[in-house]
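Subject: two folds for Thursday's group meeting

Dear M.,

Sorry for the delay on this. The cluster queue was jammed most of the week, so I only got both jobs back this morning. I'm pasting them in the order they finished. Each block is the input sequence followed by the predicted structure tokens. Could you check whether the formatting survives your parser before we put anything on slides? The first protein is the one we discussed after the seminar.
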Amino acid sequence: MKEIFDFDELDDTEKRTERAKAREIRKTRWWQQKTASGLCYYCSRKMAYRDLTMDHLVPLARGGRSTKNNLVPACKDCNNKKKSMLPLEWEDYLEKYK
């Protein structure tokens, strides 16, 4: 599949830094409010907030960063299926398997 976007991949040090930022953001009131509804960003299923994971819309492996506008709550199932797909690739994946 041809890449739609050309993101610069982060090196290992940058990925570690971004993961550490994500862990810190997970402790904030902002993240608590994002997960309080218990809704997965992708499938909209309702679950306990503690069962939601933090997902990067643009994954770290594709050059994404741990910023509030790039982080969403996702159920483990969606997060595992999405892997390192970009949002448009994820939508294409969902359309293919409907």
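Second protein, same layout:
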Amino acid sequence: MIPALMPTYSRADLAFTHGQGAWLFTERGERYLDFGAGIATSSLGHNHHGLVAAIATQAARVMHVSNLYRVPEAERLAQRLVDASFADSVFFCNSGAEANEGLVKLIRRAMAQTGRPERYRILCCEGAFHGRTLAMLAATGNAKYLAGFGPAVDGFDQIPFNNLNALRAAITPRTAGILIEPIQGEGGIRVASVEFLHGARAAADEFGLLLGFDEVQCGMGRTGKFFAHEWAGVTPDVLSAAKGIAGGFPMGAILATGSVASHLTPGSHGTTFGGNPLACAAANAVLDVLLAPGFLDSVSAKGRLLAAELDAIVADAPNVFSSRRGMGLMLGLTCVPPAAEIQEAFRAQGLLVVAAGENVLRLIPPLTLTEADILEATARIRAAIAPRRAQAGAAAPCVITSTASVSA
């Protein structure tokens, strides 16, 4: 018999009743260090005083009025995002998939409105993940996710990640834009090279295309910059954000330059819940923390500490991990045994992480975690893999992979 809650997830037998900072507590009284953060979403951790207070206060005033009226909380949030980014204008929605749908619509609309309606196709990268709607499944291009849902939505072409020659070769007279995750999360913490991002910008300018960045997972301070593309010094035309933007409250956003955003006119796009007072109160509370002087620098420092600890573990256990990937507080461990087995060993030690592609485990903790949390997590990793190291004995040398930005 099917359960009342549709079985679309293989859920761990854990039910959390409350949390504090980087820690979660189960109904059985167990304590877990949360290095998954709701898949990079609980950016301020659990039970953050400022976020909780902002939500409670706003909920007692008004939660939802619709976008038929002004929403002062949304106006303030949009201005703050504009002031902190490349963008001139922002559209609020409810999720990363919706933000990416809107990003694609905006690129297509801009082409049509400037006399190029034949340009509607988007170049996307292999290994990407852009969401679960029908169109975003096609943008993602993963056969496993597409299986059983009929013909893929037309308009998306996949190219190898970090391959500029392939990107340029794939551009046709029907290409409208390019969509790239500066760091692929679901794909295995794969970092786009600075050369690839600069080359994509140059190709977009040369061929009259629009460049979009999907920063649903890697944005909102996760790498130590407000948005990850800032490390490369490349500016997109349009960007999607979600996950950590409201600290766990459902929200997404499309950020765009004025020349692009101006093509979404009244009636051309919309949302019922997006940008309501409650969601925007939560997101403004998150920005209070992220934009505070020195906070993003602290994320970078904590990222360097965690990366150094993980590098030492990889070097010490090459039979368990072959490399460390990523930057800031978006890091991955490439496993030698099946990642699911290592994830379970971590969980047995009270450490939560998230699986990704290429046999990688993601470590994407709250941005507010402490140095003590980092040292506790790495101690638990060592305890989790100790039996495998003891069984293996001496092993072959390993490879440490990182990026220049990790130590920036």
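Two things I noticed about the second structure. The chain has a mean pLDDT of 95. The CA atoms of residues 221 and 227 lie 6 Å apart.

Cheers,
T.
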